[in-house]
Amino acid sequence: MQEEPAPVPAPTAKVPEPVKRQASARKNLTVEPPVATQTEPAPSEEASTVQPELIQAERPVRIVVGAREDSWVSLVADGRTVMEGVLSAGAQRSFRAGQSIVLKTGNAPGINVTYNGRSLGDLGADKKVRTLTFTAQGFAP
Q: Where are the domains of the chain?
């Protein structure tokens, strides 16, 4: 009678042990080995076309400020100051907000402003301080 061969054990994956590294004279850091994770499938084309629309809806207020001459401007987007200083002649900056943008300038005729893709034209003839508030519903001088 012939003997059957002994069963072969299934191979096991060797998990690396944590590596200790000396970070400083006082601390030792333990670096854990990476944990295998399941990857998400790539988003479908339909999902990727929805994303820009979501971004637009989250930030419905957009202005572009261009300087015809050096002009001091202050911009507050959703309550946070995002710019305060001189915008040099020829420079242009874009700003987006979810709720509102408040633009204050010390040289209204020195800048041009585009609000949600529409040029506002002349903002004034004198170099006085001018404040404009932009929201998704419109703007107020």
A: 60-140
